[in-house]
UniProtKB/TrEMBL annotation, chains A, B:
Substrate binds at residues 224, 353. Pfam families: Abhydrolase_1. One of its GO terms (biological process) is homoserine metabolic process. It is an enzyme of class 2 (transferase). It comes from Acidisoma cellulosilyticum. The lineage of its organism: Bacteria, Pseudomonadati, Pseudomonadota, Alphaproteobacteria, Acetobacterales. Keywords: Acyltransferase, Amino-acid biosynthesis, Cytoplasm, Methionine biosynthesis, Transferase. This is Homoserine O-acetyltransferase. Belongs to the AB hydrolase superfamily. MetX family. Homodimer. It catalyses: L-homoserine + acetyl-CoA = O-acetyl-L-homoserine + CoA. GO terms for molecular function: homoserine O-acetyltransferase activity. Pathway: Amino-acid biosynthesis; L-methionine biosynthesis via de novo pathway; O-acetyl-L-homoserine from L-homoserine: step 1/1.
Length: 385, 385
């Protein structure tokens, strides 16, 4: 049995909102904590704030060293002084999503009704809109009435779209990257395989693994492995590994033989040291349920009716998790709504993961859109508080 | 804990070869059993035999009722009187592959050195070529010096290609369907996720689950689920399920919500009642290792040098497990080898599974190629023994 890693003990920068919040499912969180990181400085007009939204397994440590892995932030190549999301010019906020496991209220947080126990599997199902509502509390807390931009990839892009739909006046510019207005049946299917792998792990203990001091590490690792394949293109996998063998001299049914296998196993085992299984269930559910057109009679354009937000949508040509057609669907809805929208498909063979990698065309696109919007908005080039 | 189902007790039609066989891994099976089914009648010249090769989770019950599931054979729509593989004209043989669990020698068979125990995880790793060698023994046993045709889809197509490469004089016509000359890195990755899911199941017990009277049902079900997604196209999944909810009224982290989820769970749980986990490991390993160009200095055309076999290759436009480019690679190698080759890409949105479904264009192609070859070969239209 695997011991629970001590990552619950880390103290994250956070704001507690004692008023709690109502959730889409009809239940109420009596208290909400939003953990976050900021980079750069808020200007006197509070007009230079950029909210960055993280993906399924991301967190608020976008641009500084991760406290558990010791690795650079997941967008350290994009967020910093002089980088496309320039912290010399902008005040960048990144929160851990509701349902997450890095300090924001989630399955690891104390249960509302049993304060000496975590929520565990009893944590109410949350939606992407719930995540955005929690972020809005933090943005209000900072006294920011309008974000200069909301930017995110994958599930982060879902949050960007939800921000633009729910709080249009609070979003000057929106950049959804490698994302879409809903999950496809195939995306749901892959998430479901991951969930079943977690359920199949006897250490899952019906979501109450914390009672036994264990984690469902094997199931969570398999979930991570299957998801990881969907993040890479077939070309990227082939280039990285091809059919290279590790060691073909000793063949047994139990050994791994190909480099791609040990890579996946590493991805799986590294992941379980930093992520909570109930959070994985909570967040994948939120992604699967996300459907901006659902309560708008299937008409996605109504989500953005009359919007004054400036949109820049980005897709990657080899992304098969959120293919370009998923982005085009949103672009078409925005155009029907007469929105100010630009759209770029970046030619890349790196698959969905391209939004995290050094793709010069992508970085140029992002830098250009942000700088153009900032100039239009009249933001000075170097901010001093 | 799940009880072992009694499927090991079924008696299958089989031939035992007491001389055994040497395997590619260097080990020796001291005795080999090949379980099989036949349909139609062998003619006096023994010239009308068609060998059908099954896919990963298939078996020899191609055209009659499956003894465990009670369902029609997996190719009952193709093999029978008056069907494209016409049992009024041809003698059709289908074997269970070496490493399988339906009567041919595999991990469930008695261990060579411990006759009161099954091989289990100690079963020697087998290759696609080993599978073909075992089939050749049965074909020789029938006194057939040349098969009229060898036909198979997916892993069955790998066997067809191996037959044509290893026993070119024994194959008059070859039909590899939805297949390729090797597994891609992505295919290996998906197989590896399935294997890891099996390993993660504590009932796997390092492959010796039979000692405890259990089966790693949860892990095997997850393996089946992830594989099943790769058998369907995104369009087929969307058409079948879209984002239809089962019952959204009661949201918890543990419930399945979408129809696609319960479908996958059904596929997983039905599978474990008819398939052995060690066989799943054995056969996926064989697929991953298959690489016809590997010991030919990477030159695939050398696998078919001077061949007189007539080839018809079939791919399906929406198959992303064995995409058309994988088939084209084989076609190009055959053309470089001056082989007699035709190639048809069937337009279908049903994905890899299309080779099992009623695709009229595919059935017409198959019927036409077989009939044309049979006429060329001088086979009469109705056979009498």
């Amino acid at each position: 049995m695997d011991q629970i890693e001590p990552f619950a003990e880390i103290t994250h920068q956070a704001v507690v909102f004692p008023e709690g919040m109502a959730l889409d499912c009809g239940r109420m969180l009596r208290q909400v904590t939003v953990a976050y990181r900021t980079y750069g400085s808020l200007n006197a007009e509070r007009s230079n704030a950029i909210l960055i939204c993280h993906a399924l397994t991301g967190d608020q440590y976008a641009a500084d060293t991760h406290p558990l892995t010791g690795r650079a932030g997941w967008w350290a190549n994009l967020v910093g002084p002089g980088l496309p999301i320039d912290t010399d010019r902008f005040f960048v906020i990144c929160t851990n999503v509701l349902g997450g496991c890095m300090g924001s209220t989630g399955p690891r947080s104390p249960h509302d009704d049993k304060p000496h126990e975590p929520w565990g599997h009893d944590f109410p199902p949350v939606t992407i809109r719930d995540m955005v509502r929690a972020q809005k509390k933090l943005v209000d807390h900072f006294g920011i009435s309008q974000l200069f931009a909301v930017i995110g990839g994958s599930m982060g892009g879902m949050q960007v779209l939800e921000w633009a739909a729910t709080y249009p006046e609070a979003v000057f510019a929106a950049v959804p990257i490698a994302s879409g207005a809903h999950h496809s049946a195939q995306n749901i299917a892959y998430n479901e395989v991951g969930r079943q792998a977690i359920f199949a792990d006897p250490d899952f203990n019906n979501g109450e693994y914390w009672r036994l001091g264990v984690i469902p590490a094997r199931g969570l690792a398999v979930a991570r492995m299957v998801a990881h394949i969907t993040y890479l293109s077939e070309a990227a996998l082939t280039r990285k590994f091809g059919r290279r063998l590790r060691d073909a001299s000793s063949l047994t049914l139990l050994d791994d033989k190909f480099e791609v296998e040990s890579y996946l196993q590493y991805q799986g085992s590294a992941f379980v040291r930093r992520f909570d299984a109930n959070s994985y269930l909570s967040i994948t559910r939120a992604m699967d349920f996300f459907d901006l057109a659902f309560d708008r009679d299937g008409d996605l354009s109504r989500a953005f009716a009359g919007t004054r937000t400036r949109f820049c949508l980005v897709s990657f040509s080899s992304d098969w998790l959120f293919p370009t057609k998923a982005t085009r669907e949103v672009v078409n809805a925005l155009i029907r709504g007469a929105a100010n929208v630009s759209f770029v498909e970046i030619m890349s063979d790196k698959g969905h993961d391209a939004f995290l990698l050094d793709e010069p065309d992508f970085h140029r696109t992002l830098a250009g859109f942000i700088a153009g919007c900032a100039d239009h908005r009249g933001l000075p080039h170097k901010e001093t508080v």
